[in-house]
Specification:
The protein has one domain: Peptide Methionine Sulfoxide Reductase, Chain A. The protein is about 40% helix and about 20% strand. It is built from seven helices and eight strands. The protein is globular and about 35 Å long. Its EC number is 1.8.4.11.
Length: about 200
């Protein structure tokens, strides 16, 4: 009987260890159009899911049209589910900082308005500390030649965007916007972060 109990305890401990190893975490970034953001982060090893959506505003369950007015206070963001055993929050931040211009207030390329602001919504005190440390270092070293204006805020209610926004680049890669705006970002990602990409 003691052997059976020991075996059961061993199996339970192993299952618990496996469950902890498979634990996922969330990261939320706004860096302009969420079509671009999604196309970048869904290609990274360790990223298990991505959802385009809206965060940081006052209106509950906003629509794309409402967010586009710039009056709701929401940013277009990507909520990323990732396995920290495969990719760290540090590595996600590195991709974030190198995949958009964090020095332009409420603008990315031709897209302008508060919904396109550069923002990190942190989910834990550790994420906040890492984001603030990275931003301070970028400003201290004048990495961009201009001040980084990325907002770092506590996570707020996240609203999933309409279904036609999800997996946008993969479904619409031949559209002009995808070819002219998103494809160059993917090519830059493949050049800089080749070792971090899914096969």
């Amino acid at each position: 009987m003691k052997k059976i109990i020991l075996i059961l305890l061993s199996v339970l401990a192993l299952n618990q260890a496996n469950a902890q190893g498979k634990k996922t975490e969330k990261a939320t970034f706004g860096m302009g159009c969420f079509w671009c953001t999604e196309a970048i982060f869904q290609r990274l090893k360790g990223v298990t899911a991505v959802k385009s959506g809206y965060e940081g505003g006052q209106l509950a369950n906003p629509t794309y049209e409402e967010v586009c007015t710039g009056n709701t206070g929401h940013a277009e963001v990507l909520q990323i589910t990732y396995n920290p055993m495969e990719i760290s929050y540090d590595e996600l931040l590195e991709v974030f900082w190198k995949s958009h211009d964090p020095t332009t207030l409420n603008r990315q390329g031709a897209d302008s308005g508060t919904q396109y602001r550069s923002v990190i919504f942190y989910h834990t005190p550790q994420q906040k500390a890492l984001a603030e440390k990275y931003k301070a270092e970028l400003n201290k070293t004048n990495a961009y030649g201009k001040k980084v204006v990325t907002a770092i805020e506590a996570a707020k209610p996240f609203y999933v965007a309409e279904s036609y926004h999800q997996n946008y680049f993969n479904k619409n890669g031949n559209e002009a916007y995808c070819r002219l705006v998103i494809q160059p970002k993917i090519e830059k990602l493949e050049k800089i972060f080749k070792s971090k990409l899914k096969k």
